[in-house]
From TrEMBL:
<dbReference type="GO" id="GO:0006493">
    <property type="term" value="P:protein O-linked glycosylation"/>
</dbReference>
<comment type="similarity">
    <text>Belongs to the glycosyltransferase 39 family.</text>
</comment>
<feature type="transmembrane region" description="Helical">
    <location>
        <begin position="120"/>
        <end position="136"/>
    </location>
</feature>
<dbReference type="GO" id="GO:0012505">
    <property type="term" value="C:endomembrane system"/>
</dbReference>
<feature type="transmembrane region" description="Helical">
    <location>
        <begin position="66"/>
        <end position="85"/>
    </location>
</feature>
<feature type="domain" description="ArnT-like N-terminal">
    <location>
        <begin position="1"/>
        <end position="228"/>
    </location>
</feature>
<keyword id="KW-0808">Transferase</keyword>
<keyword id="KW-0472">Membrane</keyword>
<feature type="transmembrane region" description="Helical">
    <location>
        <begin position="201"/>
        <end position="222"/>
    </location>
</feature>
<dbReference type="GO" id="GO:0016020">
    <property type="term" value="C:membrane"/>
</dbReference>
<keyword id="KW-0812">Transmembrane</keyword>
<dbReference type="GO" id="GO:0000030">
    <property type="term" value="F:mannosyltransferase activity"/>
</dbReference>
<feature type="transmembrane region" description="Helical">
    <location>
        <begin position="148"/>
        <end position="181"/>
    </location>
</feature>
<comment type="pathway">
    <text>Protein modification; protein glycosylation.</text>
</comment>
<protein>
    <recommendedName>
        <fullName>Protein O-mannosyl-transferase 2</fullName>
    </recommendedName>
</protein>
<keyword id="KW-0328">Glycosyltransferase</keyword>
<dbReference type="InterPro" id="IPR027005">
    <property type="entry name" value="PMT-like"/>
</dbReference>
């Protein structure tokens, strides 16, 4: 059922047809991009679960051929788990064992074979945790290039997680609690001046609040720019908005404020 749901939305992006969904747009845009890059033309109707794809090139969106965007996210997830466990445990056998367990997990293998948001979501969730841990390891050299890189990458992954599904807010909570703990620890360090503490605070506001918000907003900017044709989501929006959609009955009609 979910494949029918999100595959149809991938087609909407390829056809630039406006729709409405409860989830943010990033995951569905990536599914549409995978289909576009692999030669899918967006013509399959996705009417009900179990319909045969016949001659339609759907494999790109399922992520198991040349442009394997979705399964690549799962592969990167396994790699991220290995790096994270190595960072936390300092044990290569433990890291390899954990990554191997994930690689051969039936649930993960199944998720990677269908047109779903879950592998993309899990990648960004794990990426946020990994970036946070790597940033913590750079705590002894704040404001270095590596410290800025991992702090910024944490913000990017937070935006990615929320941009796929709102359940990504849980990893925002995790990173937020970790940040509060770090700042409280720095505030209690009497060897640091208030100016230095202020720099730490501003760096986290910039990378963990403003950067994710900017990226999240940019996702919707792309979403509304691409979907410029009338579709099934028109009725959820105002008449003034509908007048901007090509093919809508109100297209280019003058709408009073």
């Amino acid at each position: 059922w979910d494949e029918t749901h999100f595959g149809k939305m991938g087609s909407y992006y390829i056809n630039r047809t406006f729709f409405f969904d409860v989830h943010p747009p990033l995951g569905k845009m990536l599914i549409g991009l995978a289909g576009y890059l692999s030669g899918y033309d967006g013509t399959f109707p996705f009417q009900k679960p179990g319909d045969r794809y016949e001659q339609h090139n759907y494999m790109g969106m399922r992520g198991v051929r040349h442009y394997r965007l979705v399964s690549s996210f799962l592969a990167l997830l396994c790699f991220s788990v290995r790096v994270l466990l190595l960072e936390l445990s300092k044990s290569l056998p433990a890291a390899l064992l954990t990554a191997s367990i994930l690689i051969f997990d039936t649930g993960c293998i199944t998720l990677s074979q269908y047109i779903l948001l879950d592998p993309i979501l899990m990648f960004f969730l794990m990426g946020a945790v990994l970036s946070m841990v790597k940033c913590n390891t750079c705590a002894d050299r704040p404001f270095s290039a590596s410290w800025w890189f991992w702090l910024s990458l944490t913000g990017v992954n937070l935006a990615g997680a929320i941009g796929v599904k709102f359940v990504g807010l849980f990893v925002v909570l995790l990173v937020g609690l970790n940040t509060i703990y770090d700042l409280w620890d720095l505030l209690g360090n009497l060897s640091l001046s208030l100016v230095t503490f202020g720099k730490h605070l501003l760096a986290r506001v910039l990378c963990l609040i403003l950067l994710p918000l900017a990226l999240y907003t940019a996702m919707f900017a792309v979403h509304f720019t691409v979907l410029n044709k009338s579709g099934p989501g028109d009725g959820f929006f105002s008449s003034a908005f509908q007048s901007q959609l090509i093919g809508n009955n109100l297209h280019n009609v003058s709408i009073p404020e």
